[in-house]
Design brief:
Blueprint (H helix, E strand, L loop, with lengths): L1 H20 L9 H10 L4 H26 L27 E6 L9 H8 L2 H4 L2 E6 L7 H6 L5 E6 L2 H7 L6 E8 L4 E6 L22 E4 L5 H10 L7 E4 L5 H4 L5 E5 L3 H7 L5 E5 L9 E7 H6 L1 H20 L1 H11 L7 H16 L11 H13 L10
Parallel strand pairs: 1-2, 1-3, 6-7, 6-8
Antiparallel strand pairs: 3-10, 4-10, 5-8, 5-9
Helix pairs in contact: 3-8, 3-15, 4-12, 4-13, 12-13, 13-14
């Protein structure tokens, strides 16, 4: 009996001791506490990038609405003088011949193929025009030539100059009447290390591919990185920008990972040095897509002699069509007319291959035709990245 009571007493004491050692489960935090805790945590890189991109897009849409209302593209461009896609071709009976001077965007190289075709194949002569091609190039500003009446029409490689001229600090009353390259040729050019140098690369670059890389850009072109960084959330301190020319040598030597370039120029130089594995980030696929080799004239010219402009653009359009449909013949003609450079037929043909999609475009419009929506989007981007000052929309 004594032993039984003692056992019961010991069991009770042990139960009390074990109960005292049990850890109590804490109460669940309130919803307010959870929110406070989450707010104190640093955001992940993906969230920061998403916030950057969202803010950039919201700002862009605000600027675009302002541009469409106050500075619409229709105020500085027209397709009205270009032939329609179903327009036929027949020569005119000429009682007289009009002299017409063209200020070219660059030296006389294979980039002038549409003009050379129109000249050599008689399209200009068919519409009673005698055309002189005035070379551009380093140190030549055909805007001044146009203003002084030295040429009748000008081609500018960078179409962004047109709205900059129209709405700049010293505005000029000019109108864009056509674009040879309907998609932007601007790229960041590098080499694909995963592809042998004697083979072509199929790699598709994205903005994230530039993280941790060294990019060479011509002076004042860093706004293009700002565009990519803000639109796609790339931290500025994760890409090294250095000043460079368009020449690809620093990439070939390994001093830089990428350089700013034109699709129709520098890749050919790489190929001629045996580097077939070049890879290009094409800005047109990522939202920066201005027209190139844009033709513009004084508004006064359009108003006083629209027939002259209509004939010129019709003949030039025939030159463009011949380039697309007959590249071999166009290359032979380009070699003959490219008096400012040493050019082979193979080099000209390669250029035509690289630029074909840019000439045709993706808008289902006839050659050289432009879109008001495209112009407005590009002007809004220029304002957002400090390439154009329009106080009302900033």
């Amino acid at each position: 009996m004594y032993r039984a009571k003692l056992s019961l007493w010991l069991l009770a004491v042990l139960t009390l001791i074990l109960s005292a050692c049990v850890v109590q489960t804490p109460a669940a935090p309130s919803a307010e506490a959870e929110k406070s805790s989450e707010a104190d945590m640093p955001k992940a890189a993906e969230e920061v990038a998403a916030d950057m991109a969202a803010g950039s897009e919201a700002e862009f849409q605000r600027i675009l609405a302002c541009v469409e209302e106050n500075f619409p593209a229709e105020s500085y461009f027209t397709n009205d003088l270009l032939p329609t896609s179903d327009a036929g071709w027949e020569s005119m009976d000429c009682e007289s011949v009009d002299q017409f001077k063209v200020g070219m965007s660059w030296v006389l190289n294979d980039g002038g193929a549409p003009w050379y075709n129109a000249q050599e194949l008689g399209f200009f002569a068919d519409v009673c025009l005698e055309v002189e091609l005035v070379a551009g190039g380093p140190g030549v500003d055909h805007l001044q030539t146009l203003a002084s009446g030295g040429v009748d029409i000008v081609g500018v490689a960078d179409g962004n100059r047109v709205p900059a001229i129209v709405y700049g600090p010293t505005p000029a009353d000019v109108v864009a009447v056509g674009a040879i390259l309907k998609l932007s040729p601007y790229i960041w050019l590098g080499l694909d290390p995963d592809t042998p140098r004697d083979q072509r690369s199929n790699k598709k670059l994205t903005p994230q591919d530039f993280i941790g890389k060294r990019v060479g850009l011509p002076i004042n072109d860093d706004y293009l990185f700002a565009f990519i960084a803000n639109k796609y959330g790339i931290p500025a301190d994760q890409v090294e920008l250095v000043e460079s020319s368009f020449m690809p040598d620093p990439v070939l030597a390994g001093a830089m990972d990428y350089i700013g370039a034109w699709l129709i120029n520098e890749p050919r130089l790489m190929e001629e040095k045996g580097f077939m594995n070049w890879v290009a980030f094409q800005f047109r696929d990522w939202g920066w897509d201005g027209y190139a080799d844009v033709l513009f004239v004084r508004r006064e010219t359009l108003e006083t002699n629209p027939d002259l402009m209509r004939r010129y653009l019709a003949a030039l359009s025939q030159g463009i069509k011949h380039l697309i449909e007959n590249p071999e013949d166009s290359a032979d003609i380009a070699v003959q007319y490219s008096v400012d450079v040493q050019l082979t037929k193979e080099q000209a043909l390669r250029r035509f291959q690289l630029q074909e999609a840019l000439v045709i475009g993706n808008d289902d419009l006839p050659v050289a035709h432009m879109s008001a929506e495209r112009w407005n989007v590009q002007v809004a981007s220029m304002i957002q990245y400090d390439q154009l000052e329009l106080a009302m929309c900033e």
